[in-house]
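Hi D.,

Good news: the full-assembly prediction came through. Inputs first.
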Amino acid sequence: MTEPLTATAMDIARTARIASSKLARLEAQRRTDALNQLAAELEKHASDILQANQTDCQIAAPLVEQGILSAALFKRLKLDEQKLKSVIDGVRQVAALPDPLGSIDLARELDDGLELYRIACPIGVILVIFEARPDALPQIASLLIRSGNAGLLKGGREAKNSNEAMFACIETALETCEFPPGAYKLVPGRHEVSELLKNDKFIDLVIPRGSSELVRQIQESTKIPVLGHAEGICHLYVDEFADLGMALDLAIDAKTSYPAACNSVETLLVHSAMAPSFLPVVVKAYEKAGVEVRIDAADAKKFGIKSFEPTCESDWSTEYSDLIISIKTVDSLAEAIEHINEYGSGHTDAIVTDAKGSYEIFSTEVNSAGVYWNASTRFADGFRYGFGAEVGISTGKLHPRGPVGIDGITTYKYKLVGKGHVVSNYSGAGARTFTHRNLSAD
Amino acid sequence: MTEPLTATAMDIARTARIASSKLARLEAQRRTDALNQLAAELEKHASDILQANQTDCQIAAPLVEQGILSAALFKRLKLDEQKLKSVIDGVRQVAALPDPLGSIDLARELDDGLELYRIACPIGVILVIFEARPDALPQIASLLIRSGNAGLLKGGREAKNSNEAMFACIETALETCEFPPGAYKLVPGRHEVSELLKNDKFIDLVIPRGSSELVRQIQESTKIPVLGHAEGICHLYVDEFADLGMALDLAIDAKTSYPAACNSVETLLVHSAMAPSFLPVVVKAYEKAGVEVRIDAADAKKFGIKSFEPTCESDWSTEYSDLIISIKTVDSLAEAIEHINEYGSGHTDAIVTDAKGSYEIFSTEVNSAGVYWNASTRFADGFRYGFGAEVGISTGKLHPRGPVGIDGITTYKYKLVGKGHVVSNYSGAGARTFTHRNLSAD
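Then the structure:
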């Protein structure tokens, strides 16, 4: 059975690649129309979608009882009228976002009649792999449509019927707006995914949306660039010059407002000068909020902390994704920065301080995508940043970095316009020289 | 012997990582001073450097005679007073380039007192691997210094003495300007390089400068992002509406002005309507320039071409890097675009046409880093683009793409400045809403 399946994956990818160059040429209005059409189709077929979702849930329910599926996953799988409505609103919001393509960020005359432009364009073909949330499919599809990228979409198999019902709406909308065929495709199974992950000729980017486990597994198994983060090990550092009331509020919010989120704090670093006054208070507040505190036994004794688990080396590199926090005292700002750069995942790290100097050192020396001053790490999110929609959060160092909006799934190309210019005129005797004069863009 | 060597590679990388956060905080003037100091040191020690290079050449000379080293490599290895002077000029030019760090390209109020900034910053630690050109070392080091990145530098072993002499100048210059120790290091051997390539915790980017073979080998052996291109398969497409004189000039320049360059053309695509008038002329001109022509036998017969090699499938994906060209006739612009997107390497592709419409379709549908209209592909180069200096050319789709200047080896981070803002205030009853008001960036 391997042969035909492989052929299918290759065919899907090749068709998407060919369609992607046509997509790149669709005017902005056509992409907007397709998004509005998609919203209309989803509305029109709401009852079919909800029914398909019910089928998925009926299949999943016994698996939850047998302990094969988690209750949390089952909850995410369930789609109701309200949730579907907010998905449809989301598609319309993406339709209303400014178009990311075609903007010129460099325009330069190289010589008389020879002009260089750097222009925003789609990346090409993006493979998106997500877990069992059926609302992810129309969300992701709309981001891809807005940005002119072709997309191969693999949903969680628990949401199979829901995804198929929603994808039918996508197909109708795109057909209505005469999109190139094959630009978007549901990838049927896992086997096809692993074939696609090998195909760096036709696929330009992989976006896994799901557990750290999923992301790590994909990162290990492909040469294609992966946009995402396997880990969110975020820190809050309470500086020597912190306002303790503020530090307390931030410590609670950053840990407890949504512990499973990647932008939640895992480790609280406290300057030793603040520890005597701050630690007993924050630990008490954590206890009250049901947070398990892990701290060095000697520190616990020193600061009269009774209820705790002792920390060990592995705590500093663990994303608990749960109501657990590790606490460490440090003797200096430098020690805090070194700890973060050593154990952090480059996601988001915050300092609480009234000293601008401390913030400046912290924000320059901590090499994370987000460096915050007196604010909760939980703000690290595309919606909160005002990007309108979020593709994911990248902990890589290169672009796109941090929360990734639509702009993050575009790239650029250089267009050079000449009148028959050849390079041989720019060397040797009587060589022409470049003017390198910046033009006003557009 | 494996253990201590491995430890050394880890130590070098860890030290560079720690130094890189200090580097990120050095003000622009200090980095400028270090570059000017480096130029002065190279001048001061010119005779030592030339002598070290002579030693390298003496060691290499018999290897050339024995056919172990190529004559081309030997020529690149040789450093004379003139070449060294131009290297030193290059360092001073980089010193004079505008500083790429600290610029703000997004400034946005998220809510009252909560402000988001996106700021250019160094990437971190960059491993650069180059072949036996000793002039590459000070060039690359100066780009890294200008951009605030730490650097691990592995030169070709044939240039060992030259590199050590020049690296001594780098060390003195950086010490004089009180740079953090260990920010730049010569990597001693191949074993250390393979250890470093495994170390994606401490190294953020790898830049191979050398043969396609070197680049491919590195791409296969690391999870760290690699900036570069294994292949430069560039195309020139002579459209139905081309000016034939211009097409001829471009075809000759793009192939013959430097056939070993990655931005030279490998395949000439000719619209079948132009073939009868253009093919005999261009083939004759190629013959005169010593270029071997490969073309389909039937086409050759049709257009009266006598001296040629017949093409086979592998020609379309071969970078000859030599005075060889493959020629293909196509029946439409669409067929040309499809050929380029299928066989090209995404480097640079050009169309010759008088029809703006053809150019617009070509430049939007060809998904290469450079899409040119009536200009030679040989312009794809950081210096010619006016970037002042070039790190390399990337055929990846993500940023940095195409010729990469200093800006391309910076990234950005998000700084969020609050007054104790927590996310829990932005949900539930009485939730605050984000203002998302753009601020004027500094």
